[in-house]
Amino acid sequence: MDLGLTGRVAIVAAASKGLGRAVAEELASEGAHVAICARTASALEETAGQIQKATGREVFHRALDVTDSKAVTDFVAAVETRFGRLDICVTNSGGPPSNLFKNTPPEAWRAALDQLLMSTINFAKEALPRMQKNKWGRLITITSSAVKQPVDGLLLSNSIRAAVTGLARTLANEYAADGITVNNVCPGYTRTARLNGLASTISAHTGSKPEEVFADWEREVPAGRLGTPQEFAAVVTFLASERASYVNGTSIAVDGGLVRSLL
User: To which CATH superfamily is domain 9-189+228-254 assigned?
Assistant: First the structure.
């Protein structure tokens, strides 16, 4: 299937590892010009080189903090200068720490708002006007299955990623007439460094071994296993494509059947 991504220009945030990296590599493998950002310059440079070697596509990269609106503005402008346009923007960030409500101070809530919600707003306000000029665009937010079914211990993620989902659904309505789709993709238990860290945290709190935590998660998933970043990236890449032109305003779980809701 030709996804119509050859020559398209895509930004993927927080793409030095994990889900963001998998999405960037999948888009590049489909012929897109890819621009990636993350906080750690050395890891970002290494990832860019590996994607370019694997796909043969140029990968533009810049180290930045997605909570810094000025840095995001400059990055998006630099991408447009380098490639002449912007077609696809995939927002993403690391997840806030696991904690209980009684142990979460106000500053942790503010930091999580910046990390999850404001970072998405920063990219959206820069990307959407550029997409409007071309009458074509894809804004895709990466959140979590927690927006459909809260995950124990992830208070901040459960709460604030839901706000990102509300933002995406509203933007889908506002920009659809401009040929722009806005969709939200919700990973379930996917084997990444983030999940390894969560398993370690749960292990420390409960006394269970990390492998026992993983086994418990696998039992929760009807598929009987954890997902891979590549499986997740395939869904995001389809939503970024020409083929997905009538998919708009959705929140799609990529979770092996973990979420039990009907809608």
Answer: NAD(P)-binding Rossmann-like Domain (3.40.50.720)
